Amino acid sequence: MISWLEKTFKIKENNTTVKREIYTGLVTFLAVSYILAVNPAILSSAGMDRGGVLCATAIAAFIGTLCMAFFANFPLLLAPGMGLNAFFAFTVVRTMGFSWQFALFAVIVEGLIFFLLSISSIREKIIEAIPMPLKNAMGAGVGLFITLIAFKNANIIRSHPDTLLTIQHFFGPDFPTVGISAILALTGVLITAYLMHRKVAGSMLIGILATWLLGMICQLLGIYRVIPEAGCYSLFPDFSGEAFRATFAGFGQIFGAAFDVDSWHCSTTGHHGWELVRSFDFAVICFSFLFADFFDTVGTINGAVVNTPLMKKDGTIPRLRGALLADSVATFAGGILGTSTVTTMAESATGVNVGARTGLAALTGAFLFLLSLIAAPIFMAIPGFATAPALIIVGFLMLRAVKNIDMDDIAGAVPAYLLICGMVFTYSISDGLGMGVIAWTLLNCGIKGRVNWLLWCISLLFIAKYIYL
Fold this sequence. Notes:
Layout: H1 2-9, H2 18-32, H3 35-44, H4 50-71, E1 78-80, H5 84-93, H6 100-119, H7 122-129, H8 132-153, E2 157-160, E3 164-167, H9 175-197, H10 203-220, H11 241-248, H12 251-254, H13 280-305, H14 320-337, E4 342-344, H15 349-353, H16 359-374, H17 376-381, H18 384-399, H19 410-425, H20 429-447, H21 453-468
Antiparallel strand pairs: 1-4, 2-3
């Protein structure tokens, strides 16, 4: 078995070990596992069965991550992307009025287009055309992006009508729910940081488990209260038969529903069936899914591997085509199974930053996604505030990429700065990348008089998106 793993994933060649890859795969999965709870909650608002979406999410993530392991030998995990699932549910279905079955069909079409682009060299050339300052900025931007996700999942920050965001009122009336959750998350950050300072093996995983354990103790003492309406659920796994039945319920209703032409309709236009495919709105939806998925993947992969052995010194990424192919297959499969666009998860950087180097880490994560269908009560019980410390620490590690940006070079530093800010303040990896690339193209054209033609093409695509979409 060990020899097969060595031959398949080139463990020694990548200066790692089987034990380390399995461990980092587990850590990455725990960082990504929140999607098993969040994605069903978002897509159920579009009328889809929550239990069915959970099954579709886990199986699609398993297929996509398995492809990543064998197509590219990369330690990156795939799952339905945040932002893309919100666009699916709140824009395409609830605002534009399309049925969720038709929205799934659009995801499948996008996956097919993505696949055709992936087997060509177009996507690789685009990624390779991005300058190193922007690639380093992607690393820092993705780091801050996942930190923002962690702060939100752990309730460390909350929305505010005047300042948009503000810090949690820790000891206010919501102390037994979001207040204590935020405090436990920040405690977990300190625990993880201390363990890292002491060079304790497995510090990320220990930090997650320690924070979860503290939460369970608080629940037993009545400090943390279970109030589902406030998003605070029991921290103890529920192994009752009803919990398992709820997990699998409804999968049959959404599996393959994208091909149920009779269910395709649009409440705003009154159109049904194949006439929807001929509409301009269908092209807009497919392009929107494709655009966001394409550049989210570009930003995530670059951000996760920059300044690691997975990226060469000249900024190129070996086996990139395999990673992009895995992403497209996952999106296609996800649409058939019954979930929104599947993409490479930004939280994959968690595993890379603790030593993941091969597809064995991805293979571990893939089987944990599959296992989550059986052990769903365990994984569903791990709260967002327990995984937040690992994401926050990884965000710090990724932020160090800014030191490789020459801040005296205005033509490179300012676009890199805009890219980082864009990712965080627009809550979108692709939009942050767009701001950075447009700024780079225009600024370098004015200063140096010459810019790669592919960067002009990417800039014009982003500009067209902002004008027409």
